[in-house]
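Hypothesis: this fold can be encoded by more than one sequence.
Test: take the structure tokens below, design a sequence, compare later.
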């Protein structure tokens, strides 16, 4: 029995630099992914969004590779954002996926790559769920202040930075997680296509993705409301300034007329 272990080791990884650091036989590479063979029946899959998956590596090997890619990260056993999927090669049965393991009919690197890909996407979803939970908690604090005190407890500059951060996370989710797309390797292989669909279903990737996307949409809607309130407040200030200036001008004219009269 083998195992796929996927770990979040960074917020982002430079694929070109990772390729240079690993210096291993290349099986697939583009600007977002790097799939290499690290030994006999061993593979490493690196993703731009900071997740690295290992196939058939022991803990010491995983920690050595992780330290190479990111020296500051702790041992993988201490990582909160990780996922493990067991893999069984059984020539007597077709490809099947269950809750904690995958059975494949032969030792196919493309099938293993699909397992590593979906396991890594699951870890990335956990990461973005943590981020959106924190964003939602921060937004709720401002909503509570608005409810209790009738005003926003945040400056205009900080609100703009908050909105920019939310939009950045939204774009990262859209760019990095291709939950609804099938990899190119499944287009002409029915068995791999079925394996990929079963993996997505087992990891519940689509529903988890929609849940995160809905939370981001709620946060974005709240921040847009905050911005409208902030704009209205600034507009009201400007109106009062204009009114005061007009009043000063009227008083000034009135005083001048009185003085000229005398």
């Amino acid at each position: 029995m083998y195992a796929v272990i996927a770990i979040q080791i960074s917020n982002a990884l430079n694929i070109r630099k990772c390729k240079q650091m690993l210096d291993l036989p290349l099986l697939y590479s583009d600007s977002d992914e790097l799939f290499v063979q690290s030994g006999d029946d061993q593979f490493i899959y690196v993703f731009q969004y900071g997740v690295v998956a290992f196939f058939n590596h022991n803990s010491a090997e995983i920690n050595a590779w992780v330290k190479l890619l990111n020296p500051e990260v702790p041992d993988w056993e201490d990582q909160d954002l990780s996922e493990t999927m067991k893999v069984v090669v059984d020539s007597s049965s077709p490809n099947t996926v269950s809750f904690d393991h995958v059975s494949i009919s032969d030792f196919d690197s493309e099938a293993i790559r699909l397992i590593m890909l979906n396991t890594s996407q699951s870890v990335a979803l956990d990461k973005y769920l943590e981020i959106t939970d924190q964003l939602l908690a921060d937004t709720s604090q401002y909503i509570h202040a608005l409810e209790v005190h009738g005003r926003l407890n945040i400056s205009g500059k900080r609100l703009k930075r908050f909105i920019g951060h939310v939009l950045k996370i939204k774009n990262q989710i859209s760019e990095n997680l291709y939950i609804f797309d099938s990899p190119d390797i499944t287009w002409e292989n029915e068995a791999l296509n079925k394996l990929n669909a079963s993996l997505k279903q087992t990891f519940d990737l689509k529903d988890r993705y929609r849940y995160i996307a809905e939370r981001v949409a709620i946060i974005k809607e709240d921040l847009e409301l905050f911005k409208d309130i902030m704009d209205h407040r600034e507009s009201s200030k400007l109106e009062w300034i204009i009114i005061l200036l007009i009043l000063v001008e009227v008083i000034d004219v009135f005083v001048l007329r009185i003085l000229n009269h005398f």
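The chain has a mean pLDDT of 85. Residues 160 and 227 are 8 Å apart (CA to CA).
Hypothesis status: open.
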